[in-house]
Specification:
The chain is mainly α. The chain is built from eight helices and no strands. It has two domains: 51 residues, no CATH class; 167 residues, no CATH class. It is globular, with a radius of gyration of 20 Å.
Length: 241
């Protein structure tokens, strides 16, 4: 039974109490790339009082059911990631890009910071698109093959599944930094007083995309990848006859 206390990792807290993901987002607690940090360490890192924060979070997480993704098999989780998070990003990235282009054209003269915001968001999309293609075309098929094998580890062209996973982890860190920069440039996705409805909708969409990507990365970094590495390790051990 996971308890919300200083020694609990952020990843374990979100898996046990999924609604805490939004609470972590609000407080700037990085539960995806930084999911292995304890609540105490993560609060100290950004200047939050651990005792106060944990008391607030405990009230929110008191009645949650564990997250569904924590009980999925590797192949089921891969399917979930594609149909939930990948599909969302493929749909949302062009839609939000169009919103960004519109507010730059209308408000760019009065708000020159929109140029940096547009550039940063374009970099987020430029990172996420190829990243998802590599997962869909290379890593996820490898994981499905592992999940369907019971007699020895499959032979992959890239060697161990750890190799593409290490690349994915590095790319997750990079997009995490870009999203943090986007949040900084938009003052926490706060539109200016003279921003129109499209301006507000654009910032809200970017904030939603950030939150969904954080959860997406958490499921891969802290649930799927450790599971898959363990599967490959166990399949590589000869079964006694």
């Amino acid at each position: 039974m996971v308890k919300i206390e200083e020694s609990t990792t952020l990843a374990a807290a979100v898996d046990a109490f999924p609604q805490l993901a939004r609470e972590f987002e609000r407080r700037g607690l990085d539960y995806c790339c930084g999911g292995r940090r304890t609540l105490g360490d993560a609060c100290a890192l950004i200047g939050l009082d651990p005792a106060t924060t944990i008391a607030e979070l405990a009230g929110v997480g008191a009645t949650a059911e564990p997250a569904a993704w924590t009980t999925m098999t590797a192949d089921a989780l891969v399917d979930h990631l594609e149909t939930t998070h990948h599909r969302y990003l493929w749909d949302e990235m062009p839609r939000v890009t169009a919103l960004v282009d519109k507010i730059v054209s209308v408000h760019g003269a009065r708000h020159p910071e929109l140029g940096e915001i547009a550039s940063c968001f374009a970099n987020v999309c430029a990172d996420l698109g190829p990243h998802m293609l590599k997962e869909e075309r290379m890593l996820f098929p490898m994981i499905r093959e592992l999940a369907s094998t019971s007699d020895g580890a499959p032979s992959f062209h890239c060697g161990s599944v750890r190799n593409p996973i290490s690349v994915m982890l590095s790319e997750h860190d990079a997009v995490g930094e870009l999203l943090a920069e986007l949040r900084r440039l938009t003052a926490g996705y706060t539109p200016p007083a003279d921003g129109c409805a499209t301006y507000t909708a654009c910032f809200a969409a970017m904030e939603e995309l950030e939150a969904d990507t954080h959860l997406h990365i958490h499921k891969e970094n802290n649930v799927l990848f450790p599971m898959v590495i363990q599967m490959e390790t166990e399949l590589a051990v000869p079964v006694p006859r």
